[in-house]
Known about the structure:
This protein is α+β, with helices and mostly antiparallel strands. The protein is built from four helices and 23 strands. The strands form six sheets. Strands 17-23-22-19-20 form a five-stranded mixed beta sheet, with no helix packed on it. It has a four-stranded antiparallel beta sheet with strand order 1-2-3-4, with no helix packed on it. A hairpin with a 7-residue loop joins strand 7 and strand 8 (93-94). Helix 2 packs antiparallel against helix 3 (375-395) and helix 2 (327-368) packs antiparallel against helix 4. The radius of gyration is 32 Å and the shape is elongated. It starts with 6 loop residues before the first strand and ends with a helix. The mean pLDDT is 92. This is Glycosyl hydrolase BNR repeat. One of its GO terms (molecular function) is hydrolase activity. InterPro entries: WD40/YVTN_repeat-like_dom_sf.
Amino acid sequence: MEYYCTIFAAQESPLKEGLLWVGSDDGLIHVTQDGGKNWTNVTPKGMPDWMMINSIEPSVFNAGTCYVAGTKYKTGDFTPYLYKTTNYGKSWTKITNGIAPEHFTRVLREDPKRKGLLYAGTETGMYISFDDGKNWKPFQLNLPTVPITDLTIKNNSIIVATQGRSLWILDDLTVLHQLYDLKYSNQLILFKPKDAYRMRGGTLKNSKTSGTNHPNGVVTYFNIKDFDEQKDTVSLTYFNMKGDTIKTFNTTNKKKDKLEVKKGANQFVWDMMYEGTEKLEGMILWWASLDGPKAVPGSYKVTLNKNGESVSQPFTILADPRAESDLADMQAQFNFIKDVNNTMDKAHKTIKKIRNINKQLLAFEKQYKGDNTVKDLLDKAKALQKDFKSIEEALYQTKNKSAQDPLNFPIRLTNKLGHLNAW
């Protein structure tokens, strides 16, 4: 075995200028508080010799606190080694309680938003501590059993580098931040949604050649202590800050806006879309959209309701930083689509009324066919049907029976309006 006394890990304190920590591949830790002019050997007493200092993590909450992860697997020692100091290295505490005895540790990171929340990457996966390292629990979730070589935290997401199984991201750490501040006796727990970006695109799933994108929308986490599908009704309702209802998703809905709920932890993604326009049965349009407008950046609220008991949380929708349009442009687009949809909605509801009236007129004709006592009424019924037909055909191309028919028959008013919403 060869050692080269190489500095293998080095970090600068995020709190104190000139405070630097370094660890070597032969088991030494040094610290300087004057930008490198003077160094002090602060290697933990009792730490095994010739340990590779794999990572160093100065605290973002206390200048004198630092965390170290070391490995000795190259000498056949698979013991996890994590150490913590709160006094600039004068004394250290080993913090590995709860980590399996042969899950040697490669990296430790501190959550920058919640003091005492730590993440550790080991040879077999992830661990988490909510009490500053006193106790650890497995934090594997859907992560494969794989060596974790490094961790970093950005925008309330933790990025995991693995040895041979690509990069993984746990998208939303805000749930963990809120977890220990909540009362578990509550029947309903609604976590404050993480700020969501208003952007185009979707989530690619089940690909063998690429990763999975973050869900495109407002990711809403909630916990229901008890849930009986036969007895309980649960809903999620999204509001703008004026208190206007945008959309409600309910467990009682059969298909449209159905909310799937199970006992315990749940996740729902609202796509930021407002209610779309009325749709006709068997409707065929060419290059048109009936979707509602997308919420503009700003402040919103979500309410979780179970059998009349409710809890609410505010959240924020942010503009895509790459977008060329500003907030005024997005609001103008929102207003335009809303106006277009309102017109289409009226037209489609009118067509539904026409079709319903025509059914009644046809039933009347069938019942009194050949009855001369009501001949005038029968003539008026036929005239009404003719007038209604011309109105419906002006609004919608009734000859469309297949997806290719719009190539053969001219599109009508509602199709033209829907095309304005298709871009």
